[in-house]
Amino acid sequence: MNLCALPGCCTAAGIAGGALLIRVQHFGQRSRLLRTPGHTPGHSSLLVKLSQMGPAILSGDAVHFRENYDNEGVPIFNYDRAQTIASIQRMKQIASNLKATLIIQHDARDIGKLPEFPAFAK
């Protein structure tokens, strides 16, 4: 689905650092969808800019464990190996450029960086 085709959903879209960035109103002006194909053809991750924590990338299924991220390892069940590696490299570049915290959502070590519900990261 093209999110920018939804009325009032996106305020801007563009390319930065090789990643498609889309400003999504539903997440506010401080968030961007990052196109990170590989796990699936249309996979996206989320970049959020929090007032206290700073920038954070929520990987979704782009990366499953820290070891996959560090070593650019690709699970056999991913849709496209080359796209997965390119997405990992893109996330690394964005994280480096923005000094962002990467949250690998399948890795308990990263989930532990976030406050427990009902609290939330700020």
Could you characterize what this model shows?
By secondary structure, the protein is α+β, with helices and mostly antiparallel strands. It has one domain: Ribonuclease Z/Hydroxyacylglutathione hydrolase-like (Metallo-beta-lactamase, Chain A). It is built from three helices and six strands. The protein has helices at about 65-70, 80-100, 110; strands at about 10-15, 20-25, 30-35, 45-50, 55-60, 100-105. A six-stranded mixed sheet has the order 1-2-3-4-5-6, with helices on one face. A hairpin with a 6-residue loop joins strand 2 (about 20-25) and strand 3 (about 30-35). It starts with 9 loop residues before the first strand and ends in an 11-residue tail after the last helix. The relative contact order is 0.17.
CATH class: Alpha Beta
Whole-number mean pLDDT: 77
Percent of residues in β-strands:
25-35%
What is the level-2 CATH architecture name? 4-Layer Sandwich
Q: What can be said about the biggest beta sheet? A: 6 strands, mixed
CATH topology: Metallo-beta-lactamase, Chain A
Give the helices and strands as they follow along the chain: EEEEEHHEH
Q: Can you tell me the number of structural domains? A: 1
Radius of gyration: 14 Å
- State the end-to-end CA separation: 30 Å
Side-by-side strand order of the widest sheet:
1-2-3-4-5-6
Residue share in helices?
Answer: 10-25%
Low-confidence stretches: 1-26
CATH superfamily: Ribonuclease Z/Hydroxyacylglutathione hydrolase-like
DSSP E strands, number:
6
Structural class: alpha+beta
Based on Cα principal axes, name the global outline.
Answer: globular
Query: What is the subunit organization of this protein?
Result: single chain
